[in-house]
Amino acid sequence: MPTPEQEFPLDWVDRFIGEIKSFVFLREYDELLILVPNQSYKLNRSGMKLMRALLDGRTLDQALGGRQPPPHVRRDLFQFFTGIVAMVKGCLGEGRGRPEVEAIPYRRPYIKLPIISEVALTYRCNLACRFCYAGQHRDGDTAIQMTTAEVKRVLQIIRHEAQVPSVSFTGGEPTLRDDLPELVAEGVRLGLRVNLISNGLRLTPALVAALVAAGLDSAQISLEGPEAAIHDGLTGVPGSFAATVAAVQACLAAGLPVHTNTTLTGFNVAAADRLPALARSLGLDRFSMNMVIPAAWMREAQPGLLLTYREIGPTVLRVKAVARDLGIRFMWYSPTPYCLFNPIAHNLGNKGCAACDGLLSVDPRGRVIPCSSFFEPQGSLLEQPFTEVWHSVSATRLREKQEAPAACRTCGHFDLCEGACPLYWRAMGCAELAPVAPAAEPESATDVNFGNTRPISENLVLGPRNSSRESQGGNHGSCEDGSRCPRR
Asked: What CA–CA distance (Å, rounded) separates 152 from 140?
């Protein structure tokens, strides 16, 4: 008969914590464990205390006061940490079949502060994309932007007042700012994980090397089609496809984690399923896509550009199938109404509108906007306290999804779906929802209480946001590629 030490070994825990500590962030304010950049899980006080001690450098033995845990506590600790392993691997799902997991009703607000942040360093750009939102945000000269010192001040607010562990520099085109390496270095100094969102035209090997030296963690490069004719046709600049591909190669050569992102429109959607092969041929292990966010001006000025929610589902599933066959990871970013396309059902994760919710978006003047496509300033981080801006009436209204269509607010899926994108409904109307009957309350509208009834193990509350998979019971879970992974 195995001893408790053999049945529930804990000698691997310290090594495991050392491996994950660089991308795990604890936030006591709303009891969150954040897998940087964008997955969040609730912890209770026991879990927070234990994980804080370990992430601060204490060993498990030290965290337990040097005492050998009795058998039932050892079992609970083992279940807790193997659950953390499953969470990190992405195969915890809703925890079904795990003795340490208890489902409890999902409640909003799930979070009190944002999870991710982005700073548009400038609205200037060296492309003229047909679907670009930044060019429409001109309530004045696009050359107006924060100084280096002001951006650094905003980064301090993001890290210390908003308590967000990561930032993406975006635009416009952020590489048009000569101080970009300095800003990256400042973000790193503050303890932020720094990502760059770029079209790649200025990402020469020399600039990539400077950014890597400054501490840049990753890059996302915009690639709008699998060939030059499509990409250049959308960006409005001949030769931009070749420059973008060269930027991806420069990032890979420098050892910088990079992936491509494609905005799906009516002009490239037919070729979307050719993008996985291109990404794979470039040496990437993942790529992402989002749906163009409609605006009234697009309907008038760009006939054929926009896609509907009813159209997008088949395309996403087609791309997902091709990516799976090629062995490359596909990430889908856009929220959709679950009655028309349910991403959770297709193992794509929970996608909801993050405006003034999970996302803190800052424009080039230091103003908080709901998202990069949603230009309704909520207040200035340079002129007002963060809490005043974040908890303003208008930001709270967005966070509470009060702009969702009436049909969505009475739907049983609303807590997960959240009515998709309010900008979409403004531009496209709600006719797509008319034939859809209200849905029954979904089983997946739950938080997951990770632990059991014993005080030592009432550890985690793992929320459904970004939980796209369900464990299959027993000692294994089901990963997104269909494989089985052990508990540790």
From this structure: 23
The helix (run of H) or strand (run of E) holding residue 275 is helix 275-281
DSSP for residue 371: B
Rounded to two decimals, what is the model's pTM? Answer: 0.88
What is the token pair recorded at 370?
């709901």
Judge residue 280's burial from the number of C-beta atoms within 10 Å of its C-beta, 0-12 exposed, 13-18 middle, 19 or more buried: middle
Query: Cα angle vertex 271, ends 269, 277, to 5°?
Result: 130
What is the Cα–Cα distance from 274 to 278, expressed in whole angstroms?
7
Phi-psi group of 210: left, alpha or beta (phi > 0 → left; psi -120 to 50 → alpha; rest → beta): alpha
Phi-psi region of 375 (alpha: psi -120 to 50; beta: other; left: phi over 0): beta
Contact between 133 and 120 under an 8 Å Cβ cutoff? The reply is no
The tens digit of pLDDT for each residue in 375-427 reads 999 999 999 999 999 999 999 999 999 999 999 999 988 988 999 999 999 99
Write out the two tokens for 443: 């089983």
* Domains in the chain: ranges and CATH: 4-106+445-486 (no CATH), 116-433 (3.20.20.70)
User: Max CA-CA distance within the chain?
Assistant: 75
For residues 304 and 164, what is the distance between their CA atoms, to the nearest angstrom?
A: 38
Tokens for 403, please give them: 């702009």
- Report the interhelical angle of 240-253 vs 205-214 (nearest 10°): 40
pLDDT tens digit string along 203-254? Answer: 999 999 999 999 999 999 999 999 999 999 999 999 999 999 999 999 999 9
* Nearest Cα residue to 106 out of 429, 364, 447: 447
At residue 311, φ and ψ (nearest 5 deg) are -80, -30
Can you tell me the distance from the alpha carbon of 221 to that of 175, in angstroms, rounded to the nearest whole number? 12
One-letter amino acid of 28: E
Instruction: Tell the residue number behind the tokens 């208008």, with chain if given.
Output: 394
DSSP sequence for 388-420: HHHTSHHHHHHHTTTTS-HHHHTSTTHHHHTTS
